[in-house]
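Quick one, T. Sequence first:
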Amino acid sequence: QVALVESGGGLVQPGGSLTLSCSASGFTLNNYSVNWYRQAPGKEREWVAFANFAGSTTNLDSVKGRFTVSRSLANNSVYLQMKNLKVEDTGVYFCTAHGYWGQGTQVTVSL
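Structure tokens:
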């Protein structure tokens, strides 16, 4: 069965860090480009980061220098490492690849 599952979200204070995981089943994630999106309450879904199968990555300007995308072949996963988190980073984070979306993981940045 083909699926993507995000994990690693949680509650963190401003300035804190989290690493989100996007794990694939039913296909080899490293063969596909992966995008991360987020959706804040009351707002539209927003693209955050991209990693292609060749290893190139790019990020939304507001997260440059703070968010990093990486891959693990062994775990068939892609990670979104987030540091120096801000309140405005709050939202549900989704990964998508090969036409599939995960269910999302909640990230809340608050005092």
